[in-house]
Design goal:
The complex is a heterodimer of chains A (102) and B (515). Chain A has 102 residues and is mainly α. Chain A has one domain. In chain A, 84% of the residues lie in helices and 0% in strands. With 515 residues, chain B is mainly α. Chain B has a single domain, classed as Sodium/glucose cotransporter (Up-down Bundle), CATH 1.20.1730. Helix content of chain B is 77%, strand content 0%. The longest helix of chain B has 50 residues, at 316-365. Classes of the chains: A mainly alpha (102), B mainly alpha (515). Chains A and B meet through helix 2, helix 3 and helix 4 of A and helix 5, helix 6, helix 10, helix 11 and helix 13 of B.
């Protein structure tokens, strides 16, 4: 297979933009997940009383927050899939088209 | 009368029936899979024909071990809120795997994650180094699983430990040896469906008991055991320790060879992406189930009875199954636990065997010139050898405290495999020498530091004080691996590898030429 040929025909600017956008998205979501998780751990370590705060008679703040970190993990992956399937994949197709045209 | 009046620990007609149905069904699948599993692509990657939903279930099947089902439910039942901290740690690696690794992994590799590294780095040195990291991860995880398998099955079915280990090993070898990835995938899917539905039924039974109100569940729990079960209770020893364990769990998930291998069973990066989303959903749901099951067991069964059966609380879910659904439901959940154990060790063995045959035999020993037939043959020999080794290790480590080995497997995965993958995907000037140095540094630091850590040095080797203060080495070993990768690449650059980075990028982001 000739690997050089499609590379030369590619719309380089569009490709670079695609790569930059992909990592902007990926790294922001990674940062969000890390912030939530390590934030949770650090609160546990330094201020566990914050999570023992009563919200209702037999419920502490820690339980909904813990469940929220789990839900957040699912939601963030959902956001990524949604973004990748719509915006990212469309741009991939555009770049691929630019390679085929020439 | 005993504190605990239970049928757990005696093989019952129902548990054996359910178990036999599972074994017959999975071996039938293995029989049909064996007819198909002739080519390398079938044996390692199920012919890349697994759908997103199927792979999502299979990924969660590979990940949800009996230890996380029985262990976390038990931890919650005895310690309440603290058990939730573990669950969260085991889930947060999945988004990271998705954002950083999923697509490049699928687009650049063929059968194993080592393929991704060998894409532009010098093939033989990098395959040797990366296989080391991969095999170490599988090895530690496998020991933990085999010993856990023997102990749990002994407790649940009253079967001798040795017999339990041998049965698990033999059935698992049959799946992998004859059915390759096709059979292993279906075993994972069936197990995941059984575990998720069994857990859901149990939670429904709990909820009937409490009038479908979590408020009522927590009210009764805190009435009996005090508000402490709803609060963090000192499971987190020191902040640094907690962060270090967090790093191992978060980045280790993205470096587990048996998980990464599943990405090659789907058609393309888009399907891979979708399957991670399903897996994250299933696993997250599963941890919410185990949290509920733990609290349910605490109230319905009672902490005294749970601790009387097993001080670690491992039988909490079993006791709860019996209390809420009687002997039939107990038999069902017992069979589900057995299936869970079998599936996880099968996935690990297949990943280990693939590294031995695809990366080491075909890639290193035969310079990539072996035929497909030879490679699959070696994969089968490796499966058999690893399976026998797993049985022997299970027997050797009987009664030993191997709980730390799960943490160690995650630490090695996070230190050896994850940094190498990330750097090879993102950094043009990553060199072969840098990659090898990074993998070796990560592995040596992870293993070395855990030996001199409180978990091994004090608790197992009975020394008075630990040389290294943290229980999990990840904070040092992951940073060390990244640093070694950087320094190594600066010391000995690899112009050949750098020149192929553009080509790698095109395949990585556009999927052009992906297998």
């Amino acid at each position: 297979m000739d690997k050089k040929h499609p590379l030369e025909a590619m719309d380089r600017e569009k490709f670079q933009e695609l790569v930059v956008n992909k990592w902007k998205g990926s790294l922001s979501l990674t940062a969000a997940m890390m912030l939530a998780y390590f934030g949770f751990i650090l609160v546990l370590a330094y201020a566990p009383r914050l999570l023992s705060v009563k919200i209702g008679e037999h419920m502490t703040l820690g339980i909904p927050i813990g469940i929220m970190v789990i839900v957040l993990a699912i939601v963030l992956t959902g956001i990524y899939v949604f973004w990748a399937n719509s915006s990212y994949d469309r741009k991939v197709q555009e770049v691929l088209k630019s390679m085929r045209r020439k | 009368m005993d504190i605990v009046d239970t049928a757990i620990g005696q093989p019952s007609a129902t548990s054996i029936t359910f178990f036999l149905i599972f074994i017959i069904a999975t071996l039938t699948i293995t029989y049909y899979a064996a007819k198909k599993s002739k080519s390398a692509s079938q044996f390692y990657a199920a012919g890349r024909g697994v759908t997103g939903m199927q792979n999502g279930l299979a990924l969660s099947g590979d990940y949800m071990s009996a230890a996380s089902f029985l262990g976390i439910a038990g931890l919650v039942s005895l310690r309440g809120f603290d058990g939730l901290i573990y669950s969260i740690g085991f889930l947060v690696g999945w988004p990271i795997l998705m954002f950083l690794i999923a697509e490049p992994l699928r687009n650049l590799g063929k059968f194993t994650f080592v393929d991704v590294l060998a894409y532009r780095l010098s093939k033989r040195p990098i395959r040797i180094a990366a296989s080391g990291g991969s095999l170490m991860t599988v090895f530690f995880y496998l020991i933990a699983q085999m010993v856990g398998a023997g102990t749990l099955i002994m407790m649940i079915f009253g079967m001798p430990y040795e017999l339990a280990v041998v049965i698990v090993g033999m059935v698992m070898i049959m799946y992998v040896l004859f059915g390759g990835m096709i059979a292993t995938t279906w075993v994972q899917i069936i197990k995941a469906v059984l575990l998720l539905s069994g857990g859901t039924i149990m939670v429904l039974l709990i909820m009937i008991h409490f009038g479908f109100s979590y408020g009522e569940l927590f009210r009764q729990a805190s009435m009996t055991y005090g508000d402490r079960v709803l609060e963090p209770g000192g499971l987190v020893a020191s902040p640094l320790d907690a962060v270090s364990l967090g790093i191992a769990l978060m980045f280790g998930t993205a470096g587990l060879p048996h998980i990464l291998m599943r990405f090659y069973t789907v058609r393309d990066a888009k399907t891979a992406r979708r399957s991670v989303f399903y897996a994250t959903g299933f696993i997250g749901f599963f941890y919410i189930l185990t949290f509920t099951i733990g609290f349910g067991a605490m109230v319905i069964v009672g902490q005294e009875a749970i601790a009387a059966m097993d001080s670690g609380g491992n039988m909490a879910a079993m006791l709860l199954a019996e209390a809420t659904g009687g002997a039939v439901f107990l038999g069902f959940i017992a069979a589900v636990a057995f299936a869970t154990i079998l599936a996880v060790v099968a996935g690990l063995t297949l990943a280990g065997a693939s590294t031995l045959s695809h990366d080491l035999y075909a890639g290193v020993f035969r310079f990539g010139r072996s035929t497909e037939k030879e490679e699959v043959k070696v994969a089968r020999i490796s499966t058999l050898s690893l399976g026998v080794m797993a049985i022997v290790l299970g027997l050797v480590f009987q009664g030993q405290n191997v709980a730390f080995m799960v943490g160690l497997a995650f630490a090695v995965a996070a230190s050896a495999n994850f940094p190498a993958l990330v750097l090879s995907i993102l950094w043009r000037n990553y060199s072969t020498f840098g990659a090898c140095l990074s993998i070796v540094t990560g592995t040596v630091l992870a293993v070395g530091l855990i030996i001199i850590s409180p978990t091994v040095w004090v608790e197992i080797l009975n020394n008075p004080t630990a040389i290294f203060p943290l229980s999990n080495p990840a904070i040092i070993s992951v940073a060390g691996a990244f640093a070694a990768g950087y320094i190594g690449s600066k010391l000995r650059p690899d112009p050949e590898a750098s020149s192929r980075y553009e080509e790698q990028k095109v395949r990585n982001y556009l999927g052009v030429g992906a297998e």
